Structures are given as structure tokens and as C-alpha cells.
Amino acid sequence: MPRMNRKLLTSLFLFLLLTGCASYRLGSMLPPDLQTVYMPTATNITNEPLLENEVTSAVFSELQRDGSLSPASENNADTQLTVRITGYDLTPLSFTRDNRSEPDQYRLTLTAEVELVETESGKTLVRSGRIRGEDEFPLSGDITQAKRIGLPGATQDLARVIVATITEAWVE
User: Fold this and answer.
1) Calpha distance 122→116 (Å, rounded)
2) CB–CB of 33/120 below 8 Å?
3) What is the pTM of this model?
4) SS3 assignment, position 154
5) Confidence band of 147 (pLDDT split at 50, 70, 90)
6) Termini Cα distance of the chain
7) Which CATH number covers residue 95?
8) Where in the sequence is the domain holding 87, given as residue range(s)?
9) Using one digit for the tens of pLDDT, what is the confidence trace for 64-80?
10) What gap in Å lies between CA 25 and CA 138, rounded to an integer?
């Protein structure tokens, strides 16, 4: 290949590489004045007891892992995150070979609504309808045990989606 074509291709490649990364930013995408969040215990309107504790704990862990918003007390927070658990669904995915009416794998789906409010002004910064988190798992034991097996994965997935929703809403 002639030397001129190599230079042209190299220049074109560098141009495309640099312009492709032009909007990429490291660190938090939140405005600089939003650094902390208060989250009261999630509200659970499903018939499944104690989900609010599991979801609240998972969201706190995910906030700490993400690092965009640091958990804070109600009096010291820039924002308040409200989570309302609206759905809990356990769905059979596959059935045993011997008995087609006996499930051997399930999907647990949690649904929630989220609102992030600036504490000083009371302004809603992010409001999101149906956010879903789910986990698929094999049946082990009875249905009660199956629910306990699937809950940690579903709450972690829901927490990941919640934190992404409130921290990535700021992408320009």
C-alpha cells in the first residue's frame, strides 16, 4: 500500500477514534451539587411480606458500590430516593421431564416505582414508572424455599436498575 494511503487511513482511524470518545466522561454524571441521598425504607404494596427490607438493603449496597450518590441521613442529604415495590411475580419457566405440571425452574420478577427529589427545593429530579429486577433459578425443595432462593438475585438486579436509573438520567 502506498505511503500516502497509509497516512490517510491512519489519520481517518484516529479521527474516528477520538470523535467517538468525545462525549465519554469518567466519574459521576450527576450535577456537582448532588452528592448524597437519603432513602427511607421502601414501601411494599405487594402481598409478599418483608420485601421492603430486602430491597432497601440491596439499594443501599448498590449505591455504595456505584459511588455516584453517597447514602446520608435525612437532614444531611441533597436528595431523597423513594422506592415503592409494586409487583412480585413468580413464574414457572420449565417443567420436569417426568411430570409436565411440576415446575423445575422459575423466574422471580420484582417491579418498583422510583422517585428522586432534591431535598432543598422539593423538585422531582427523576420519576420512573415500572422498573423491573429479576432472577431465574432452579427449584430446590418447596415453593417457599424457591422464593428464598430467587429473592437475593431479583433484589440485586432491581437495585442495580434503580441506581442506574437515578444516576444515568443526567446524560446529556
Assistant:
1) 10
2) no
3) 0.79
4) helix
5) confident
6) 41
7) 3.30.160.150
8) 32-167
9) 999 999 999 999 999 99
10) 40
